[in-house]
Amino acid sequence: MHPELIRIGNFVLPTYGFLIVVGLIIALYVTFRIARQQGLDPDDVWNLGTLVIFAGIIGAKVLMIVVDWEYYSRNPGQIFSLGTLRAGGVFSGGLLVAIVAAIWYMRKHQMPMLRTCDVFAPGVALGHVFGRWGCFFAGCCWGKETHVSWAVTFTNPAANQLVGTPLGISLHPTQLYEMIVELINFTILYWMVKHKKFEGQVIGAYMFLYGFARFFLEFLRGDPGRGELFGGLLTGTQAIAIVLVIAGGILWLRRVPLRGTVPMGAAGSR
Predict the structure, then answer these.
(1) Which of 212, 55, 213 is nearest to 120 (CA)?
(2) Inter-CA distances, 228 with 211, 218, 238, Å
């Protein structure tokens, strides 16, 4: 765990923030390349990607505050604190807000909605890989206590002060679990873009795969801040995961026919 990548005097470069920026740049680059190969307007895709990034960051922070409102209502100053700024937020909230913002933009600019979402899906998974890597270094989104051989023990007081990371306790490295899940998802989705049979196949697969994995990963999470439903039977994040799984399944059942998709690799001849 290393929450601070660089500290020079009063200047601090958080490891989480650095990895987020690197992940977003790489994800946008991958998305941009796929978009060109799929015949989408590069400028529209770039602008949409920028909007989705900001919407995702805001959504993740807002949902984190909403589900942990009991704490923030007693400590309103913490809403704009350094700890809240450095915290990863609730990814599901970021994903939902990003989806809403993306739908609005795609409709406004008359972009083919399902094909555009298919193009963005691999980049979203890849960006999340870097996000969870950053969470691990920051110490947030930690797991429950465990004694498995691969358990991790956080010791940096800065992480405890900023995000409340338990110190000196063996925990499930849930950040790394999710990072591995998203790396596998990216590999599957990137391959699927090349071989998809219907519009919405890639984004549908992402929603299903991520929602399914996140539902079960929640049972290993030990940090607070994702809400409780049905007397603690489910977390708010698990409810969102169920919605993602259902939505992804619906897209696969609909099987909207391909409409003028440019095969990957053909863009160079255009």
Answers:
(1) 55
(2) 17, 12, 9
Residues 162 and 138 sit within 8 Å (Cβ to Cβ): yes
Q: Are 243 and 207 contacting, i.e. CB atoms less than 8 angstroms apart?
A: no
* Cα 259 → chain centroid: 28
Distance CA 148, CA 220 (A): 12
Helix (H) or strand (E) holding 228: strand 228-229
Interatomic CA distance for residues 171 and 155, integer angstroms? 12
pLDDT averaged over the chain? 86
Helices (H), ranges, 68-173: 69-74, 82-86, 91-108, 113-138, 157-163
How many Å is the Cα radius of gyration of the chain?
A: 19
CA distance 197 to 203: 13
CB atoms closer than 10 angstroms to residue 61: 20
CA distance 146 to 173: 10
Reported pTM: 0.81
- Which residues have a Cβ under 8 Å from the Cβ of 182 and sit 6 or more positions away? 125, 126, 128, 129, 132, 210
Residue 108: CB atoms within 10 A of its CB come to: 8
Q: Which residue's structure tokens are 């994702």? A: 226
For residues 82 and 66, give the distance between their C-alpha atoms in angstroms, rounded to a whole number.
Answer: 18
What confidence tier does 86 reach under pLDDT thresholds 50, 70, 90?
low
User: What is residue 39's predicted lDDT score, i.e. its pLDDT?
Assistant: 86
- How many other CB atoms sit within 10 Å of the CB of residue 126? 25
CA 246 to CA 234: how far, in whole Å?
Answer: 17
Mean pLDDT of 56-73: 78
Q: In whole angstroms, what separates CA 72 from the centre of its chain?
A: 23
Quick one: pLDDT at residue 96? 82
The Cβ of residue 98 has, within 10 Å, a number of other Cβ atoms equal to: 22
